[in-house]
C-alpha cells in the first residue's frame, strides 16, 4: 500500500504500518457511508456478466479497468458501460449488491449505506425501477441474515442528466417505499453541474421524509458547491467536500454544526493532479480535521480503485498522518453520520468504542 499510493513512504509520518496495524485496521468495527454499487462490482463478476450479456467489451479492456492509478478510461465511463451492456435484469443487481455487502462485511463493515443510479438502470439497462429496487433490497435482507450487518440504499441522482429526471427519481422512490431505501444523493461529474440544478428533487425528497446527501467540492469544484448543497439542498451530510478547506469561515460554521463529510483517501482527482511525491502531504483531507470538520474515510469505488475499507482506514494513518486517537474520532463521526435511529447509534457508540479501545491496546 505504501508504494502503490503516490509513492509517499509511511516513514514520512514517523510511524510505520506493521502487520499488527493492518490487522487492527481490518478488525475495527466500521460503517461505510460512501460507496457506489457499480464501483464495487467484483472483477470476476464483471467478466461473468459480460459473457452472459454478450457485451462488446474485450477481456483485456475489462482487466485494464481493474487497475489502481491511471486508467485507460475513467471510472465513470466504466460505470456507464455496466449500465449499457452488463446489467440486464433485477437479479444482476441482486447479485452485485449481495457480493458488495459480503466483501464489505469481510472488513468488519457492520453497516453500509451505498449509492445506486436508478436513471441509468431504467433508461439504459431497461429494468423497471420497482423491480430493480426490489432486487437490491432483497440482497440487503439476505446480507443482513448471512453476515449480521445492516445496509441502506441511497438512490442517487445522475447530475449529468436532466434535473427533471431527478424529480422523477424521487417520484419512483415515493411509490416504492421500503425501509432499506433511506434517502437520495447526487453523483457523477460535478463540473458545470452545480447542486442548485437539483433543488426541486431535494425539496421533494425532504418533504417525503427521505434523508439527503450530495457529492460536492469534488474534482476541484469550488467550496460554493458545498455551501449550496448545505444551505439550499439542506443535506444531512456531504460526500467529499474537499474544497471547503479554501473557505475556513465556512468550514468553522460546518464544524460547529457537526456536519459529517464522507471522504475518500483514494479519490482519483488528487491522485491525478497532485505531484506524486507530495500527494498525501498536500491532500485537503489532511487539513479538514484541523478545521474542526467531522470526517469519515470510505472506499467510493472499491473494486475499480482496488481499495478495501481496511485500506481506506490504513491510508488515513500511513499517508495522511493521523494517529489512532484520530481514527477513534473518525469512527464516531461515521456513527453520527449514519442514517440509523438514536437507540442503535447510542448502542454502537458504547460497543464499538469498547472494541476499538481493546484492539488499540494490543498495538505495539
Ligand atoms: N464521484 C462522482 N460520481 C461517482 C463517483 C465519485 O467519486 N464514483 C462513482 N460515481
Ligand atoms: Zn462517490
TrEMBL record:
GO MF entries: adenine deaminase activity
Family annotation (SUPFAM superfamilies): Metallo-dependent hydrolases
EC identifiers of the protein: 3.5.4.2
UniProt superkingdom: Bacteria
The entry's keywords: Hydrolase, Metal-binding, Zinc
Enzyme class name: hydrolase
Domain Adenosine deaminase: 29-342
Xref: InterPro entries: A_deaminase_dom (IPR001365), Ado/ade_deaminase (IPR006330), Metal_Hydrolase (IPR032466)
Presence of the UniProt keyword rRNA-binding in the record: no
Names of the cofactor(s): Zn(2+)
Family designation: Belongs to the metallo-dependent hydrolases superfamily. Adenosine and AMP deaminases family.
Name listed for the protein in its UniProt record: Adenosine deaminase
Amino acid at each position: 500500500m505504501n508504494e502503490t499510493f503516490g509513492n509517499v513512504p509511511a516513514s514520512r509520518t514517523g510511524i510505520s504500518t506493521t502487520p499488527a496495524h493492518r490487522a487492527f485496521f481490518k478488525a475495527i468495527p466500521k460503517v461505510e457511508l460512501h460507496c457506489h454499487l457499480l464501483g464495487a462490482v467484483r472483477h470476476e463478476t464483471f467478466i461473468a456478466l459480460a459473457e452472459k450479456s454478450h457485451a462488446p467489451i474485450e477481456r483485456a479492456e475489462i482487466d485494464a479497468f481493474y487497475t489502481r492509478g491511471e486508467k485507460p478510461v475513467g471510472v465513470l465511463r466504466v460505470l456507464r458501460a455496466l449500465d449499457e451492456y452488463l446489467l440486464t435484469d433485477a437479479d444482476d443487481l441482486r447479485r452485485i449488491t449481495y457480493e458488495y455487502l459480503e466483501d464489505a462485511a469481510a472488513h468488519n463493515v457492520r453497516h453500509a449505506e451505498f449509492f445506486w443510479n436508478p436513471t441509468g438502470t431504467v433508461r439504459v439497462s431497461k429494468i423497471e425501477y420497482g423491480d430493480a429496487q426490489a432486487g437490491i433490497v432483497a440482497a440487503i435482507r439476505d446480507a443482513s441474515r448471512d453476515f449480521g450487518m445492516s445496509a441502506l440504499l441511497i438512490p442517487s441522482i445522475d447530475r449529468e442528466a436532466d434535473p427533471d429526471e431527478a424529480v422523477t427519481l424521487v417520484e419512483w422512490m415515493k411509490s416504492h417505499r421500503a425501509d432499506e431505501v433511506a434517502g437520495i444523493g447526487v453523483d457523477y461529474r460535478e463540473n458545470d453541474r452545480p447542486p442548485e440544478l437539483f433543488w426541486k428533487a431535494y425539496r421533494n425528497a425532504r418533504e417525503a421524509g427521505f434523508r439527503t446527501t450530495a457529492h460536492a467540492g469534488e474534482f476541484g469544484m469550488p467550496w460554493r458547491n458545498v455551501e449550496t448543497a448545505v444551505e439550499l439542498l439542506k443535506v444531512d451530510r456531504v460526500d467529499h467536500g474537499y474544497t471547503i478547506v479554501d473557505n475556513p469561515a465556512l468550514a468553522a460554521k460546518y464544524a460547529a454544526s457537526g456536519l459529517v463529510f464522507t471522504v475518500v483517501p483514494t479519490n482519483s482527482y488528487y491522485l491525478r493532479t497532485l505531484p506524486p511525491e507530495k500527494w498525501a502531504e498536500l491532500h485537503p483531507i489532511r487539513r479538514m480535521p484541523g478545521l474542526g470538520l467531522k470526517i469519515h474515510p470510505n472506499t467510493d469505488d472499491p473494486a475499480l480503485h482496488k481499495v478495501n475499507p481496511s485500506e481506506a482506514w490504513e491510508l488515513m494513518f500511513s499517508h495522511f498522518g493521523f494517529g489512532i486517537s484520530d481514527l477513534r474520532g473518525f469512527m464516531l463521526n461515521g456513527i453520527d453520520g449514519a442514517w440509523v435511529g438514536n437507540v442503535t447509534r447510542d448502542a454502537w457508540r458504547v460497543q464499538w468504542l469498547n472494541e476499538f479501545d481493546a484492539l488499540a491496546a494490543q498495538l505495539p
